Amino acid sequence: MNGRRVSLALTIGIAVVLVNGLAATPAHAHTRTAETTNLASVVTNAPELEGVTFTVYTGGFLIGLTNATDRDIIVAGYDGEPYLRIGPDGAFENRHSAATYLNRERYGDVAVPPRVDPASDPDWIRVSAQPSWVWHDHRTHWMSPQPPRFVEASVVTRLLMRARLVGPIGSGGEQQGAFQEWQIPFEHDQHAYVISGELRWIDAPPVWPWYLLAAAFVAMMLGVNRAVSRHEMIGPQRWLNPLANLVVAVAVVNAIHLVDDLAAWPGDLLDELFGLLHTLLFLTAGLVGAFWARYARDGRVLALGIASGALVYHQGLVHLPMLYASQFPTLWPPELVRFSVALGLMQAVPVAWFVIGHLRSHRSDANNGLQADVSQPTVPVASKADQPHINLDSNIKYGTKR
Amino acid sequence: MRTSRVLVIAIAAVVIAACGGGDDAPAAAPASGAISVEAGDLYYEPTSLTAAAGEIQITIENTGAVEHDVVIEEAGDVEVVHAEAGETVTGTVTLEAGTYTFYCAIPGHRAAGMEGTLTVQ
Predict the structure, then answer these.
(1) How far apart are CA B37 and CA A160, in angstroms?
(2) For a tag on chain B, would you pick the N or C end, based on fewer CB atoms within 10 A?
(3) Alpha carbon separation from A317 to A145, A209, A222, A288, A398 (Å, rounded)
(4) Proportion of chain B in helix, strand, coil states, percent, rounded to 5
(5) Given B64, B107, B108, which is nearest A146 (Cβ)?
(6) Does B66 touch chain A (CB under 8 A)?
(7) Which of A143, A181, A182 has the CB atom closest to B106's CB atom?
(8) By the CB < 8 Å criterion, does B91 face chain A?
(9) What interface predicted TM-score (ipTM) does this complex get?
(10) Cβ–Cβ contacts within 10 Å for residue A112, how many?
(11) Which of A138, A161, A162 sits opposite B108 (nearest CB)?
């Protein structure tokens, strides 16, 4: 490996470790995959008030309320006390309500100040100038990172859930559907209302169709690319370019996560920025690596491997829970997201095959005291006639047929 | 005369059978001043507890991933004991004979089923 390749690998490696490390700190652990679950929280009965909208986000982990009327809405806290005031002057929290503090953490695991007294007059503090607010209401979601008792989950899955890397998932068996009801009381224009809903357990759909579909897509991409380049390329270029094209296509599909990072979940801005940075880094690594493999003169196999690895990690592994859960935050059809995750994993199979074959070929040549010759790939080719044995200089051995 | 003798014997037999009990019948556990309950996510096991009136020690073994507590509703919603995930903690409360409802006061836990009955004798 020459100095240039080492620099490339080191630069990418350091950037990945830095951004990934920052994004994985507990402060930013609430990425969208942490919202992935088999729990659905659904509004079953909401009063029809013109200008008032309720939004329940994935799993009921967050609830949003917008009040465009000219009268305030007062949402009750856990002891019936005024908790939120939302109206024309903005959104306000009552500092004498325990809910103000408990709702700052998903499972309410925060200390409530001793001065909190639900019986005392509200002490309103403005939290938004807009007539809308989004909060963790512990009445609308399952209050544990572990699933309900009737759910079966493997030890590994339970460890991931306990680490809060993924929401409650597993198999509910026969027990699908609603298992718990919830209510949130509120007042509007001196009238009392209640918004009602229920928690449902919904098992994830089967996983194998997505892997199958992704494998078919990979095979089709390689087949088409290989057919197009048949009469132009020689040696490993036959597969290097199609594989690079495949990685580019997969990286482009990965862009759906960019949109979701920004808009699919109303998390705090810093979390969204880190999620976006995280996705951008790996998307860029995938694209740059693929273009490097396609057009550079040196280090092409290494670049292809890095590009593919970046997509396996980010598009595949980071988002893997979305393949195994029925509910996750996305603005896209869930089927497209599942397909993209499976694609992120499946694209690595032919790339790994190619890279390992290349490395074996290198080692074999080195053992024989020969100059490395990658013009004889260990991957299958269409026909012997298309692959003349040409022992070329390393700088031109990926070139086009002359 | 003979009829009344048969009737007396029959009644005595029924009474003896009712009081004798079989070997399979579980003997009622004497109420004690110390009880324990497992608190998981999101359940208590068991949900029916019995204790002797007076000072009662309640131990919760928190096998869940989040905090839990035990609050007695009829005793003024007093929190008797609180345990973080993985902890086993004991608390004390003084109760007179009666039937009480105990529950977990962490928001959302009671609605998920974390409540039970404590019978104090």
Answers:
(1) 27
(2) N
(3) 20, 18, 23, 20, 32
(4) 20, 45, 35
(5) B64
(6) yes
(7) A143
(8) no
(9) 0.73
(10) 13
(11) A138
HEC letters along A37-96:
ECEEEEEEECCCCCCEEEEECHHHCCEEEEECCCCCEEEECCCCCEEEEEECCEEEEECC
What pLDDT score does B20 carry?
40
Residue among A173, A187, A166, A176 nearest A318 (CA): A166
**Chain B environment of A104 (Cβ under 8 Å):** none
Only one residue has tokens 């408990």, namely: A102
Are the Cβ atoms of B65 and A162 closer than 8 angstroms? yes
B109 neighbourhood in chain A, CB within 8 Å: 143
Residue given tokens 């002891």 in the structure block:
A79
- The shortest CB-CB distance from A144 to any of B41, B107, B111 is to B41
Please name which of A96, A126, A107 lies closest in space to residue A59, comparing C-alpha atoms. A107
Q: Any CB–CB contact under 8 A between B38 and chain A?
A: no
pLDDT at residue B23 is higher than 60: no
The single-letter DSSP state of residue A327 is B
Contacts of A180 in chain B (CB under 8 A): 111-113
**Cα(A373)–Cα(A383) distance, rounded to whole angstroms?**
19
Return the amino acid letter for B113: G
pLDDT above 70: percentage of residues in chain A: 81
Instruction: Give tens-digit pLDDT for A248-295.
Output: 999 998 889 888 888 888 877 787 788 888 889 999 999 999 999 988
Q: Are β-strands B54-62 and B34-40 bridged in parallel, bridged antiparallel, or unpaired?
A: parallel
Shortest distance, CA A79 to any CA of chain B (angstroms)? 10
Chain B residues whose CB is inside 8 A of the A138 CB are 106-108
Structure tokens at A289: 């690596």
Calpha distance A219→B91 (Å, rounded)? 64
- Tokens standing for A161? 């859930």
Task: Give how far Cα A397 sits from Cα of A237, A244, A298, Å.
Answer: 9, 17, 11
* pLDDT of B15 strictly over 90: no
CA A118 from centroid of its chain's CA atoms: 39
**Region of poorest pLDDT, from A14-18, A111-115, B85-89:** A14-18
A198-237 pLDDT per residue, tens: 999 999 999 999 999 999 999 998 888 877 766 555 566 6
